[in-house]
Every structure is written in structure tokens, then in C-alpha cells.
Amino acid sequence: MKITEASPDALTSLLAERATFVAYVEKRLRGTASAEEIVQDAFAKALVHRDELTAARSARAWFFGILRNAVVDAKRRADVAGRAHERLVAETPALAMPEPAGASCRCIGAAVSGLKEEYREVLTHVVADDEPLATFASRSGLSNNHAAVRVHRAKKALAATVKKTCGACASAGCRDCTCARPPGA
Prior knowledge:
- The protein is built from nine helices and no strands.
- By secondary structure, it is mainly α.
- It has two domains: 7-80, Rna Polymerase Sigma Factor, Chain: A, CATH 1.10.1740; 92-171, Winged helix-like DNA-binding domain superfamily/Winged helix DNA-binding domain (Arc Repressor Mutant, subunit A, Orthogonal Bundle), CATH 1.10.10.10.
- Helix 2 runs parallel beside helix 4, helix 3 (32-48) packs across helix 4 and helix 6 (117-128) packs across helix 8 (144-166).
């Protein structure tokens, strides 16, 4: 027997347990911001599919099933975004920040400081400090895909700035810098 009139009561009881559901998702994904979003999306899905809740089935168990599927989907999306980021880095080695050792181009620092704040931040944390993209995205309130796009755009902007500033040195990958500019210029 399907619950039709009792569905609002069942869904209301689920809303009362929201903190429990968020804790469940946080434990599996280790991220408060994404956990909140996943639980919110699961509640929306529960409203759409509330006619699937039967009298023989506990509303709580039914909702946990929805949450489990949402967690699996979120992990898959994160894996896909991580692989996309790794491919992006592998495909664009010339855009990567140079290693501090050796004779790297002295114009890189000035070029980075001339970029937009959001680009400087992502280059500093994700590229230079090797912070995981998912960690940066979560801390910045971005989706993994948005953070990966920001990394790509920041590297592209940095490459364009260095090429404009340094010319031939940038074409050679900014190794063994031949720029006559003083550091910071």
C-alpha cells in the first residue's frame, strides 16, 4: 500500500533528522559544504519520488538509500574531475609553474602578481603548493569542475603574460632565463 496522505508527515520526520543525514554524508565525503548540498539534493529527490515510499518501508531507511546513491554519485563525479585535472596538467606541461631550483625565469613572480586574485590564489595553492584540487575547491566553495577550470584559465593567463613579457625565454619554457629584467620587474 502506498502512502499518499502520510507522505508529508514522513518527509517532515526526515527533515527533523537533517543533521544526522549531513553527518552521514560528511563521514563518507569529508566535506561539510558538499555534504550540505548532497543532503539538500536528496531531499529534493525524495519530494519528487515520495510516491515510491510504501507503508512497509521505513521513511528513514528509504531516505538513507537515496543518500547512499547520492554519495556514490558524488564520489564518481569527484573521481572524474580529478582525472580531468590530471589530464589537464599532463597535457599542458609548459604552463606549469617552474621549479624553484635552477635558473627559472625571474619574470614569473611579477607575472603571477599581476594576475587576478582568484588566479593567483589557485596557482599558489594547487600548482605551487600541490594542494589537492578537491581540497582547494571545498575550501573555496567551488565545485571540483569549477576549480579545475580556474586552474586551466590561471595557467593560460600566466603563460600569456609571461610570453608577452619575456618573448623568446617563454617560448623555451622559461628555463635558463635570458631575460634582462631585474627580479620583480
